């Protein structure tokens, strides 16, 4: 006696049901994965800012409480590169590159040919009473409420409050946010525009 084995095939309705379920799961999972990746980039960027701020404070502690100058041939990036474990001669003014992992925001999506460091020193904390120019003191009156570093697009070592208003590219994270390092070393991810008059930008009332 022979036995017959019947193989049951998917019906069209069952196949469409499976496809619909896969589509629903994909619609749920893909945005979640995107949000997780965006959060990871924000976290990595905040880590970059914290490391740069910490190394600036170390530099200041070894240099009479003065932060590294931003201009005048003494790039702050060059000054703190030993603290960032960046080999000498690999960062600096053109033609030397200034690209290094900790200096780049992982969420940067601009022209690859323009990739440069994405963080700038707050120009408003310059002490204009000091010589030579472009000097910044560490002993600010309210270090936990004074911005030290802010996100930039590219090709600059300083950031002004006006730049954060006119250049939305500096807020490249979810919720129109950016990472800011404060003089006491902590980092905050803040949404929207911090207006030029916001006291977090300023230390000296004479600074425009």
Description:
The chain is an alpha+beta fold. The chain has one domain. Helix content is about 30%, strand content about 10%. It is built from three helices and seven strands. The protein has a five-stranded mixed beta sheet with strand order 5-2-4-6-7. The chain has a two-stranded antiparallel ribbon with strand order 1-3. The longest helix has about 50 residues. The radius of gyration is 25 Å and the shape is elongated. The model has no long low-confidence stretch (mean pLDDT about 80).
- Largest sheet composition: 5 strands, mixed
Distance between the termini: 100 Å
Overall number of strands? 7
Share of residues in strands: 5-15%
Strand order of the largest sheet: 5-2-4-6-7
Radius of gyration: 25 Å
Q: Could you say how many structural domains there are in total?
A: 1
| Proportion of residues in helical segments | 25-40%
Q: What would you call the structural class?
A: alpha+beta
- Principal-axes shape call: elongated
Unreliable residue runs = none
* Whole-number mean pLDDT: 78
Number of helices: 3
Instruction: Return the string of H and E elements.
Output: HEHEEEEHEE
Fold topology:
Blueprint: H1 12-61, E1 66-67, H2 76-80, E2 119-122, E3 136-137, E4 147-151, E5 158-159, H3 161-166, E6 177-182, E7 187-191
Parallel strand pairs: 2-5
Antiparallel strand pairs: 1-3, 2-4, 4-6, 6-7
């Amino acid at each position: 006696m022979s036995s017959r084995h019947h193989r049951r095939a998917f019906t069209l309705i069952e196949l469409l049901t499976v496809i619909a379920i896969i589509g629903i799961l994909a619609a749920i999972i893909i945005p979640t994965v995107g949000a997780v990746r965006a959060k990871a980039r924000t976290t990595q960027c905040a880590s970059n800012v914290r490391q740069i701020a910490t190394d600036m404070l170390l530099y200041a502690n070894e240099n009479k409480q003065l932060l590294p100058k931003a201009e005048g041939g003494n790039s702050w990036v060059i000054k703190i590169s030993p603290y960032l474990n960046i080999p000498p001669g690999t960062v600096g003014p053109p033609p030397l590159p200034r690209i290094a992992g900790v200096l780049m925001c992982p969420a940067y999506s601009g022209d690859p040919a323009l990739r440069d460091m994405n963080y700038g020193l707050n120009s408003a904390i310059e002490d204009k009473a000091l010589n030579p120019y472009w000097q910044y003191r560490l002993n600010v009156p309210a270090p936990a409420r004074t911005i030290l570093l802010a996100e930039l697009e590219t090709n600059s070592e300083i950031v002004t409050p006006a730049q954060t208003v006119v250049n939305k590219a500096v807020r490249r994270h979810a919720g129109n946010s950016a990472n800011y390092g404060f003089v006491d070393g902590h980092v905050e991810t803040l949404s929207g525009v911090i207006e030029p008059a916001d006291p977090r930008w300023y230390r000296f009332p004479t600074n425009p």
